[in-house]
């Protein structure tokens, strides 16, 4: 309030006052027009206008006389007639400057001429025909647009398919080239180790540790190239040399027996591998102990023999021992622990032991997660695939 007193010319108050003045002036003007329309005929006749003026301004006033009310009714009829005349003039004006539909409506209802009605109906039909023609053209254009859009999509899909096919073909060629290069490297390694074996045989003789080592390396080269017969023959040569020089129960002999068992396993000959790997495990347990890395590797192959023979219960017991030793050696953040857990989960799945299988699948997933392995790694994808199959069961 103090601010308004200090600023008497406040803009907000001034605007409110101006709006009230404008509304009051507009209302007074409307009342004056109404009074003028009603009282004009009686003013011309010199009659009293007090009662009529009071009824016109205050229709609910009950003090007016019956004559005044009759006069007011007559004045109202005159007012209606005047408004009708003004409406007719407005219609005539609109018919001169309005649209075709406005002329049709105004002529029909203002003039009431049947001829105009017929003309209006013809014009309406003409307009409907034009609208129908435009709609047909629009539908045709829309259809052509859809066809063009579909062709464009088909062309884009065809281009994408061609590009994808080209990329797949290119990747396939690269993969073939890589396999060819790897095969060539393995063949070169075989040739290299064969030359070394021949050189050491000439230099050191047939029965010598260096000759046995060269034969063992040659067998590893053959095994990488999946030449199982040549690999087994080279491993047996190394085993025969080491057994002759050191004995059949030494670590060198166990090394050769382990390699021969792996070769037979990969060649799908588990029965031949069983005796070899059993002997290797017994030698390594005696010489190295059950908690050594080489011992647990041989025992893992021993569990693989049982699995290849279809003895899932025995394979599960052996894999559990392998898992316990590997967890003690490497803790739970090593890939060998995850691989063993996943293998054990698959073994239990074959035995329809769903709960145990789910437990070891979760253990393998936890190990991979702790290792920070990406989710799109082939090992992770294989684990997820095996676990999904377990859920389907």
UniProtKB/TrEMBL annotation:
Region span, Disordered: 1-31, 162-185
Domain of life: Eukaryota
UniProt keyword annotations, A-Z: Repeat, TPR repeat
Cross-referenced Pfam families: TPR_12
Biased composition (Basic and acidic residues): 1-25
InterPro entries reported in the protein's UniProt record: TPR-like_helical_dom_sf (IPR011990)
The keyword Repeat appears for this protein: yes
Name of the protein: Kinesin light chain
């Amino acid at each position: 309030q103090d601010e308004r007193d200090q600023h008497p010319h406040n803009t907000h108050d001034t605007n409110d006052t101006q709006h009230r003045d404008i509304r009051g002036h507009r209302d007074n003007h409307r009342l004056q027009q109404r009074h003028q329309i009603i009282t004009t005929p009686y003013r011309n006749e010199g009659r009293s206008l007090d009662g009529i003026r009071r009824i016109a301004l205050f229709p609910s006033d009950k003090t007016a006389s019956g004559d005044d009310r009759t006069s007011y009714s007559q004045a109202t009829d005159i007012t209606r007639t005047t408004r009708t005349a003004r409406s007719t003039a407005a219609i005539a004006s609109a018919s001169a400057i309005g649209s075709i539909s406005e002329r049709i409506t105004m002529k029909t209802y203002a003039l009431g001429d049947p001829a105009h009605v017929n003309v209006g109906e013809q014009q309406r039909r003409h307009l409907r025909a034009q609208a129908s023609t435009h709609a047909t053209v629009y539908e045709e254009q829309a259809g052509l647009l859809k066809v063009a859009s579909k062709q464009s999509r088909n062309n884009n899909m065809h281009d994408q398919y061609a590009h994808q096919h080209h990329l797949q073909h290119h990747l396939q060629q690269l993969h073939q080239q890589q396999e060819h290069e790897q095969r060539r490297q393995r063949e070169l390694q075989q040739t290299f180790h064969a030359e070394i074996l021949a050189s050491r045989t000439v230099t050191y003789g047939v029965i010598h540790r260096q000759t046995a080592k060269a034969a063992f390396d040659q067998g590893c080269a053959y095994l990488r190239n999946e030449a199982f017969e040549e690999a087994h023959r080279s491993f047996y040569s190394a085993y025969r040399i080491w057994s002759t020089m050191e004995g059949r129960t030494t670590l060198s002999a166990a090394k050769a027996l382990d390699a021969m068992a792996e070769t037979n396993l990969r060649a799908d000959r588990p029965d031949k591998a069983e005796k070899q790997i059993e002997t290797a495990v017994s030698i390594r347990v005696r010489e190295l102990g059950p908690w050594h890395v080489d011992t647990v590797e041989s025992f893992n192959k021993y569990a693989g023999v049982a699995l290849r023979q279809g003895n899932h219960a025995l394979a599960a017991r052996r894999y559990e021992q392998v898992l316990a030793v590997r967890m003690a050696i490497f803790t739970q953040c090593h890939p060998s622990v995850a691989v063993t857990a996943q293998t054990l989960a698959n073994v239990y799945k074959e035995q329809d032991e769903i709960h145990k299988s789910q437990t070891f699948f979760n253990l393998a997933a936890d190990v991979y997660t702790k290792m920070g392995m990406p989710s799109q790694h082939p090992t992770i994808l294989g684990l997820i695939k095996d676990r999904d199959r377990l859920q389907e069961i």
